[in-house]
Each structure stands twice: as structure tokens, then as C-alpha cells.
Specification:
There is one protein chain. The protein has 2 helices and no strands. It is mostly helical and 59 residues long. Helix 1 runs antiparallel to helix 2.
């Protein structure tokens, strides 16, 4: 997977998480509904992978 593909996936996950958070009545800044938690975990996992890839490429 290229860095560009990883970046695109990370951005899509971020948009999905933010869209859900904006409309979900159960999600707050400190707690999430099951769907919100899944979206947040997907976003953070992809963000971590992208940032780790960037760090490795700078070495």
C-alpha cells in the first residue's frame, strides 16, 4: 500500500468519524456509542499507520 493510499484511507476514516460524531446523540467528547467507537478506532489506527510511515520515510 502506498503512502498516498494510506493517507486517503486515513482521511476517509476521519470524515466518517466526524460526520457520525456531528449527528449522533449518544457520542460526546469523552464517550462514544458502539458505532462511534468503531469509527474512532479505525481513524486512529489509520492515522497511526500513516504517521509511522511518514517517520520511517524521513530516516
Amino acid at each position: 500500500m502506498s503512502a498516498e493510499d494510506l493517507y486517503d484511507r486515513y482521511q476517509v476514516a476521519h470524515i466518517a468519524h466526524r460526520s457520525h460524531h456531528a449527528t449522533c446523540t449518544e457520542c460526546t467528547d469523552t464517550s462514544r456509542c458502539p458505532t462511534g467507537q468503531r469509527l474512532f478506532e479505525s481513524f486512529t489506527r489509520l492515522q497511526d499507520a500513516y504517521l509511522n510511515r511518514q517517520r520511517q520515510q524521513r530516516r
